[in-house]
């Protein structure tokens, strides 16, 4: 009879108790010869071990990316450019957007008439009371398809970075000894005055300079050549001189003591010089009419010089003389060239007087 001695229960005694033979303890000579041949083949390089297979599948790369130098790496991996990310959704894409994002009838009609490329958004915002009432988006597949086309057909390329030395971008700084608030090199000398020069004024075009001195003269210089173009003499020292800022007139205001002279230096373009003289010839009036036009006789007196062959003042370029009651220290022109002011520190409440050249009028600033 068959005795089923194999059971799932753990038995105390073994099935067989035959002792192992003594040959199992002695190394086999044939196995020793096989092992020695394998060792010799490995040493000679004829036998190489098989590479281990990846455990996670054939598509997993279990290697160190930085093990090889850069030149030996896969160029396709280095040229990889990630796809641009989509724009995050805005308020108009909400299932319950604010009222200002919803289209009116006119906006919806305008949106439907536009081309798809001209629309700011490719859908009409709608409002729902709750999220479970929002239907499925009908254009989902189309948008995904267009997104894949954009990723597939849109060319992407690396921008080569320019190797620029940062020091080349910094401008060359001047030497510290050259950064001075005053000129250190003498280039031009305007010599001619015999006493202290009290005032200086530059022509609006920058071609000439007018200077006044205590030697009772006003000199007109050419800037580039330092040549004296004109010399005008007065009865006393010149306290201030200002060139008219209007380039269509050739005029200078000269303060000499209590008198203010409007002179024509007669330098520059001949057309401007003649037009300036025509302004005074057309406005020449009698002394009585001129005095009657003055605002206040106690402030100033206007005197217009008439053109004549015997008049030395007209030959010297003097066109108008304005006599004040106090010494003039400063003259200032308005940028329009028709108004100018004279400052008299000793004039108390009438120390500043505004003059109107075209109307021959004056007014004190109280």
Please sum up the structure shown.
The chain is an alpha+beta fold and 366 residues long. The protein has eight helices and 13 strands. Among the domains are: 91-130 and 140-153, no CATH class; 197-283 and 299-365, YVTN repeat-like/Quinoprotein amine dehydrogenase (Methylamine Dehydrogenase, Chain H, 7 Propeller), CATH 2.130.10.
Structure description:
This protein has 366 residues and is α+β, with helices and mostly antiparallel strands. Among the domains are: 91-130 and 140-153, no CATH class; 197-283 and 299-365, Methylamine Dehydrogenase, Chain H (7 Propeller), CATH 2.130.10. The chain contains eight helices and 13 strands. The chain has helices at 29-44, 75-78, 105-113, 140-153, 166-169, 270-282, 287-293, 312-315, and strands at 197-202, 208-213, 217-222, 228-233, 238-243, 252-256, 259-263, 300-304, 318-324, 330-333, 339-343, 352-356, 361-364. A five-stranded antiparallel sheet has the order 5-6-7-9-8. The chain has a four-stranded antiparallel sheet with strand order 1-2-3-4, with no helix packed on it. A hairpin with a 2-residue loop joins strand 6 and strand 7. The protein is elongated, with a radius of gyration of 53 Å. It starts with 28 loop residues before the first helix and ends with a strand.
């Amino acid at each position: 009879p068959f005795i089923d001695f194999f059971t799932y229960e753990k038995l105390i005694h073994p099935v067989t108790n035959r002792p192992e033979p003594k040959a199992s303890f002695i190394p086999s000579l044939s196995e020793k010869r096989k092992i020695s041949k394998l060792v010799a083949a490995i040493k000679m390089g004829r036998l190489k071990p098989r590479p281990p297979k990846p455990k996670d599948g054939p598509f997993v790369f279990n290697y160190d990316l930085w093990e090889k130098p850069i030149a030996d790496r896969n160029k396709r991996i280095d040229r990889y450019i990630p796809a641009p990310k989509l724009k995050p959704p805005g308020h108009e894409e909400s299932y319950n957007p604010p009222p200002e994002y919803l289209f009116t009838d006119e906006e919806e009609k305008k949106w439907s008439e536009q081309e798809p490329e001209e629309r700011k958004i490719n859908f009409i915002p709608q409002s729902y009371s709750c999220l479970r009432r929002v239907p499925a988006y009908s254009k989902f597949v189309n948008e995904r398809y267009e997104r894949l086309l954009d990723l597939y057909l849109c060319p992407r390329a690396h921008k080569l970075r320019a190797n620029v030395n940062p020091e080349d971008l910094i401008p060359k700084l001047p030497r510290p000894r050259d950064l001075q608030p005053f000129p250190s090199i003498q280039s031009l000398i305007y010599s001619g005055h015999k006493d202290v020069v009290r005032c200086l004024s530059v022509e609006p075009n920058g071609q000439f300079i007018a200077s006044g001195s205590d030697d009772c003269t006003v000199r007109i210089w050419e800037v580039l050549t330092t040549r004296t173009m004109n010399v005008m003499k007065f009865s006393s020292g010149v306290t201030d001189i200002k060139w008219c800022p209007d380039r269509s007139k050739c005029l200078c205001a000269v303060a000499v003591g209590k008198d203010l002279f409007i002179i024509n230096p007669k330098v520059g373009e001949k057309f401007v010089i003649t037009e300036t003289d025509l302004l005074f010839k057309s406005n020449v009036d009698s002394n009585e009419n001129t005095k009657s036009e003055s605002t206040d006789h106690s402030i100033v007196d206007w005197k217009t010089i008439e053109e004549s062959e015997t008049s030395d003042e007209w030959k010297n370029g003097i066109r108008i003389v304005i006599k004040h009651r106090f010494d003039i220290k400063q003259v200032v022109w308005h940028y329009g060239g028709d108004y100018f002011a004279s400052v008299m520190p000793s004039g108390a409440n009438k120390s500043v007087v505004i003059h109107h050249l075209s109307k021959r009028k004056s007014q004190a600033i109280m």
